[in-house]
Amino acid sequence: MQFRSRMLGRLRPYILLFAALTAIYHANLRPVDSSDSLPAALIPFAVVLDHTVTLDRFAPWLHGHVWYTASIIHQAHGHFFSSYPIGGALLVTPLYLPAGLLVRHWDAGSLAVLARIAEKFAAAAVAALSAVLVLLLLKRITTTGWAWCLTFVYALATETWSISSQALWQHGPAELAIIGTLLCLDYWTEHRTSSVALGMCGVCTAAAFIFRPTSLVLLPAMVAAFWFAKATLAQHIRFLAAPVVGGVLLAGYNLYVFHRASGGYAVALLTGSTWAGLAGVFLSPGRGLLMYTPVALFALCAFSRRASSVRNKHNPVLTAAVAFILLDSIAIARSVNWWGGYCWGPRLLTELIPPLMVLMAVGASAIDRPWVRSAFAICALYSMLIQAVGVFFYPNGHWDGIPEGVDELHGRLWNWRDNPIDRTVRGGFYWEPYAIVGAVFTGGISAAETRMRELNVNPYEQAQPGKLPGTDRGLP
Asked: Which residues of 329-347 are buried (b: 16+ CB within 10 A; e: fewer)?
């Protein structure tokens, strides 16, 4: 009994953190989704009900009701597959098992509507769990107080809130896998004989690029970390076993469905200008990381003299974090679609958030000076407010598509006078979900359906007819 009590006491802070963040992530009462996330929302139901990853059950209904179906579903071998990686959808499938027993006889249209609701719950759970792992990781690097502070920054002042927690994009599962990789690496640094930690490093690394193809750069980042940590050849092999197996399985699936190892994405899409892309993803008013998440600047504190002792102690995880940030930034910058299509903020840089948190934790002693701490607090609060705009206001203002789609007129990304933040704030609060939920309590499901029609709310309608507001035509 005492053991169970002590165990519950240890777990209670993490359980409360998970529950609190889950509640916050659901506070807008809607998914901030896109066409990109629709296949991931449907695949768990396909697996639970039909024991397959194909979308054959849904394809006829989608072709008849969702005009962008051709861009998100790929037909091969007489079946319909997601045009996007399916790893994240498979990760959350166990969460759908209870619902699967209740909706087994539902028609495809009803399931498709339920899928939009279920994906928000799944995405929020993955994002909240990733925050719990971030706390575990950061407590190994810095003080408990700073670990908690940076965990809330990760959860609420970055794209983890406005992107990962809102829909089944690939970013949330990828963040979870990257954090798991760094956590296992730091554990291995302390316990060099732990083959389990090495194996889990490999499993999480493989999961990262299975969930999101651009996270393949985590593999060379980890190899660099083990190299500088003077790992033996046998340790390198133990680590690489899972990524090799995962890579073979992923390439096999992609070759079968898409007839190319890269899957639904062409390598030719990484042919943009590196410097122009870097300027865009970090500095542009349309998508710049430092415009939407300026608190990221404090990652530079990891390289101050005050942080030298922590750098030395956690050198492998620091090496992996820095290498991943550099490689992933270059990969995204070289994308011909570095702005990520119709979305809120620097969506394609979401995977940088976990390693940036590691750098902030390493540099916490440098941040913990009066004037630096004040600047950090101001930037963190501003970043949180910007993410809240994306959660509670976007897509009002419809900056992505008006007066012309950003995918067609790229120069709009550098328009300081007409930028997404200002336009979205002026567009006003997205209040319709609250009206619909209120109708449920006052008149039941039928009243909610009527209210949805009155408000012209359609879970599969895009902001600009004839365009693909959520579609990323470049990287996933």
From this structure: bebbbbbebbbbbbbbbbb
